[in-house]
Specification:
Layout (H helix, E strand, L loop, with lengths): L3 E10 L2 E11 L4 E5 L6 H9 L6 E6 L2 E2 L10 E4 L11 H11 L4 H14 L15 H13 L5 E5 L7 H18 L2 E6 L2 H7 L2 E6 L2 E6 L1 H6 L4 H7 L4
Parallel strand pairs: 3-8, 3-9, 6-7, 7-8
Antiparallel strand pairs: 1-2, 1-4, 4-5, 9-10
Helix pairs in contact: 2-3, 2-4, 3-4
The chain binds adenosine-5'-diphosphate (ADP) and magnesium ion.
Length: 238
């Protein structure tokens, strides 16, 4: 569960090809970071995997099945949005249970999964509060909880920490890494922040203008950047 393969996947908006055909393999349980400057296509690539955008060409395989035409809700993936996407009028419990309610799960199963997620995320004492009564870090954990309860094959994060302050960001990075260690579920994490990429990733995918410049572990990219762009971006000596 959680192996994602892109075969010659491309994306154009109108006449503009923002992602020329690319191949990428993400292994089950890997923490993969898409990194690159603003506008390089990170979000678009993530949205293609999530099914929130249709590919212009190529195929997306999830656990060996062609998912290219499968609607987002049926791909078994969960996108983690920034914490401001929470519903302010709903309790934490209701926010976390929301996707399960939409999917029509029975109440007992909803409660079981919400309580399990709350325990993993240290939110047990906060289930009856509303987002406005939580700290920024707690709110971000609620947003992650909403993904966890779906028991996805992979988590997709699009710059989830970019509206948190610097100190909180460091803590949340550690929390997400810890969560990955605990769940051992595939995570794809988009960021423009090199430090985030280097500290969190098993595998980094460096993008420039929709093109993959290099794929490798943080150490591989640091020791053997393929070109000046990667070296400059990763901050290695080349
Ligand atoms: P990143 O997330 O790396 O900042 P994006 O994936 O958001 O980059 O955008 C990549 C390119 O695609 C940019 O040039 C952006 O303007 C363009 N783009 C993204 N979404 C759309 C859209 N819905 N319509 C037209 N162009 C888009
Ligand atoms: Mg983006």
């Amino acid at each position: 569960m959680g192996r994602i393969v892109l075969e010659k996947v491309s994306k154009s908006f109108g006449d503009v090809e923002v992602i020329p055909p690319l191949d990428l393999e993400i292994n089950d349980g890997e923490f993969v970071v898409f990194v690159g400057p603003s506008g390089c296509g990170k979000s678009t690539l993530l949205r293609l995997i999530a099914g929130l955008e249709d590919v212009s060409g190529g195929r997306i395989l999830i656990d060996g099945q062609d998912a290219t035409a499968v609607p987002p809700a049926k791909r078994g993936l969960a996108m983690v949005f920034q914490s401001y996407a929470l519903y302010p009028h709903m309790t934490v419990r209701k926010n976390i249970a929301f996707p399960l309610r939409m999917a029509g799960l029975d109440k007992a199963e909803q409660d079981r999964r919400v309580e399990q997620a709350a325990e993993v995320l240290n939110l047990t004492d906060y289930l009856d509060r509303r987002p406005g009564q939580l700290s920024g870090g707690q709110r971000q954990r609620v947003a992650i909880g909403r993904a966890i309860v779906r028991e996805p094959a992979a988590f997709l994060f699009d710059e989830p920490l970019s509206n948190l302050d610097a100190a909180l960001r460091v803590g949340m990075r550690l929390e997400i890494s810890e969560l990955h260690n605990r769940l051992e579920t595939t995570m794809i994490y988009v960021t423009h922040d090199q430090v985030e990429a280097m500290t969190m990733a098993d595998k980094i995918v460096v993008l420039q203008a929709g093109v993959i410049e290099q794929v490798g572990s943080p150490l591989e990219l640091y020791r053997a950047p393929r070109n000046k762009f990667v070296a400059g971006f990763i901050g290695s000596p080349k």
